[in-house]
Amino acid sequence: MELPRISARGLLLIPDPHVAAVPPGRRLEGYCEQILAKLAACLEHAAAEDLVPVILGDLFHWPRENPNHLLVRLIGLFRPHRPFALVGNHDKYQARFTEDVSLAVLAAAGAVRLLDTPGPAFHLDSPTGRAIVGASPDAAPIPLAFDRTGGPEAEEAVWLTHHNVGFPDFENRQVKIREIPGVDWVINGHIHRPQPTQVRGGTKWVNPGNISRLTFSPRALTRIPAASVWTPGLPPEQTELLAWPVPFLPFVEVFPDEAFPPEEEKNAVDGSSFVDGLERLSWKRTAEGLGIKEFLSVNVNPELPESDLIWELYHEAVNGRSQDEK
Question: What is the Cα–Cα distance from 296 to 52, expressed in whole angstroms?
Answer without folding.
Answer: 35
